[in-house]
Structure to design on (169 residues):
């Protein structure tokens, strides 16, 4: 990969509920690995906000969706996956690649045919870049499904990533 490990391939500046699907499909993406906490759900909720549910229902018509979370609770992540009727991986240990490889094998896809969508540079983007997936950084969600206006963690991660050389070509 020619860019920095912490540089997402696409940073549209929107939440997952606002993420357009067409650009992903035009790239030959067949599956989306979706982070759960703060990407699909705010905080420790288990009920998907309506805008996220609407987006995911449309996405599932065109792409294979798989929830991919570092959260160790199979019960919680499974409850979210049940709402979408999709498979899931909990305790994924991002940015490690082992669980990503298992999902690629399970779906019989090449890395360039899968995108990982999440709100964290040091887990979601780093994991995807290490394996050659298309990486999408989205804004974290608030309880009402709207983007967090000022997310301190994402802002800090961006500053550290820039300091480490991300964004420089």
């Amino acid at each position: 990969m020619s860019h920095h490990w912490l540089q997402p391939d696409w940073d549209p500046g929107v939440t997952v509920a606002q993420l357009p699907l067409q650009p992903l499909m035009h790239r030959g993406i067949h599956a989306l690995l979706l982070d759960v906490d703060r990407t699909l759900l705010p905080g420790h909720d288990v009920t998907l906000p309506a805008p996220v549910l609407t987006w995911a229902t449309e996405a599932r018509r065109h792409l294979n969706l798989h929830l991919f979370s570092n959260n160790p609770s199979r019960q919680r992540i499974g409850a979210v996956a049940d709402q979408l009727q999709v498979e899931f991986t909990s305790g994924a240990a991002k940015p490690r690649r082992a669980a990503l490889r298992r999902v690629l094998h399970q779906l019989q896809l090449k890395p360039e045919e899968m995108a990982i969508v999440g709100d964290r540079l040091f887990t979601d983007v780093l994991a995807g870049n290490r394996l050659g997936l298309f990486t999408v950084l989205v804004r974290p969600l608030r309880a009402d499904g709207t983007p967090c206006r000022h997310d301190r963690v994402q802002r800090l991660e961006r500053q550290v990533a820039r300091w480490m050389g991300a964004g420089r070509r």
